[in-house]
Specification:
The structure is a single chain. The protein has two domains: 158 residues, Alpha-Beta Complex (Aspartate Aminotransferase, domain 1), CATH 3.90.1150.10; 240 residues, Type I PLP-dependent aspartate aminotransferase-like (Major domain) (Aspartate Aminotransferase, domain 2, 3-Layer(aba) Sandwich). With 415 residues, the protein is an alpha/beta fold. The strands form four sheets. The chain has a seven-stranded mixed β-sheet, with helices on both faces. It contains 15 helices and 14 strands.
Length: 415
């Protein structure tokens, strides 16, 4: 009898429910003719958003130049545009040589961790996190040590707790700001304390800033690298979210800090980049246009804008719910509600997500998918039209009503 191929054992430790079993079940239901509202992925193009026209023109005008490979770190003009952008932010030592362009931020996160980690090394990762951070740490033979970001603290971490988790094996601190999945935006004073921890323990800061311009009301985004100074910092950004061009797969990372401290790491990143030859070339021609052209995201995030009004629909729906509470997201593209009260008795977020899919045709992501121990959260994206999000929460309330009723009946039977 044929024996199945063995796979890497550490894959059993990896979870990515954003595109996991629930998403596979959703595809089965769609194949059966069901129409679903899919809120599992922050994918603007799937909800009618388009990449700005000036970015599209930047590619089409240079398409004749996109056939060859480029330098493993990216097109020189695109890298210079990124270096100039970071210098304007106050990032020290921001030069073309320190910019790496990749096939999305996801690839660069993996390359950065692969360049850094030896087996058993530890990375401090927020909980909840974007699960790629934990998965990439594990798959590069590291250990993800989660520092808590609690709802009662606005999903902001306690720097003292972060520092208490540092051991001789700790190599890096991950910061996701604005945060996915919670929408928290980190204040400057908190970031300064995190920088101080990295400086004391000679750690690399890894700052995921893919949502840097997606902020609401009075929230202000503070980039980490200008605060880090000589402390090594790898800052990530890209075209996927702010510029609504997920499918172009263009991300970047800039390495800042003391040249003597980051030299070996820079060479390791360059080597790994060379092994995958180069990133997608056509999309790189849109980088300079994205950084220097018209701001097309601010209006979407302001009152009356599509994202702002979608966020308002979620906030208002949660406020009217008998079963939900939520920290209002200050940034990014997600709401992260919490189930409370009778509906929370024995609540299992995976079972709830499956019930929402099977009975209400809505695909959400369970909170535990973001490496959160509590089982009473779920994530929705803010990308659908506001009226569709209001309908989603009507369906959420219907399921939670049933769960609360069942919990009440169970208590009555016990009494």
């Amino acid at each position: 009898m044929s024996q199945p191929l063995k796979t890497r054992e550490r894959l059993t430790e990896v979870r990515y429910e954003i595109r996991g079993e629930l998403a596979r079940r959703a595809r089965e239901l769609e194949a059966q003719g069901r129409t679903l509202i899919k809120l599992n992925i922050g994918n603007p193009g799937a909800f009618g958003f388009r990449a700005p026209e000036h970015l599209q023109r930047a590619i089409t005008d240079r398409i004749h130049e996109t056939d060859p490979y480029t330098h493993q770190q990216g097109l020189p003009a695109a890298r210079e545009a990124l270096a100039s952008f970071h210098r304007a932010r106050g990032t020290p030592n921001a030069s073309t040589e320190r910019v790496f362009i990749g096939n999305g931020v996801s690839e660069l996160i993996d390359l950065g961790l692969r360049a850094l980690l030896n087996p058993g090394d530890e990375v401090l990762v927020p909980s909840p996190d974007y699960p790629l951070w934990t998965a990439a740490t594990i798959l590069n033979d590291g250990c993800a040590v989660h520092y808590p970001c609690r709802a009662e603290d606005g999903f902001l971490p306690d720097p003292d707790v972060i520092e208490s988790l540092v051991t001789p094996r700790t190599r890096a601190i991950v910061v996701i700001n604005p945060n996915n999945p919670t929408g928290a935006v980190y204040p400057r004073a908190l970031l300064e304390r995190i920088v101080a921890i990295a400086a004391r323990h000679r750690l690399l800061l890894m700052s995921d800033e893919i949502y840097d311009s997606i902020v609401y009301d009075d929230a202000m985004f503070q980039p980490l690298a200008p605060l880090a100074g000589d402390v090594p910092c790898l800052s990530f950004g890209g075209l996927s979210k702010v510029h609504r061009a997920c499918g172009w797969r263009i991300g970047w990372a800039l390495l800042s800090g003391d040249p003597l401290m980051v030299g070996d790491f820079h060479h390791a990143m360059d080597l790994l980049g060379a092994l995958r030859l180069c990133a997608n070339v056509p999309g790189q021609f849109a980088i300079e246009a994205a950084l220097s052209g018209e701001d097309t995201i601010a209006a979407l995030c302001a009152p009356g804008g599509r994202l702002y009004e979608a966020r308002r629909a979620v906030v208002d729906s949660v406020a009217c719910s008998r079963h939900l509470v939520m920290n209002t997201p200050d940034g990014a593209l997600y709401g992260f509600p919490e189930v409370t009260g009778a509906a929370a008795d024995g609540f299992d977020d995976q079972a709830f997500a499956l019930e929402m899919l099977e009975s209400e045709s809505v695909l959400i992501v369970p909170g535990t998918s973001f490496n959160l121990r509590d089982r009473n959260h779920f994530r929705v994206t803010l990308l659908p039209p506001p009226e569709q999000l209001r309908e989603v929460f009507v369906r959420v309330e219907r399921v939670l009503d049933r769960r609360a009723d069942r919990a009440g009946e169970a208590r009555a039977q016990v009494a």
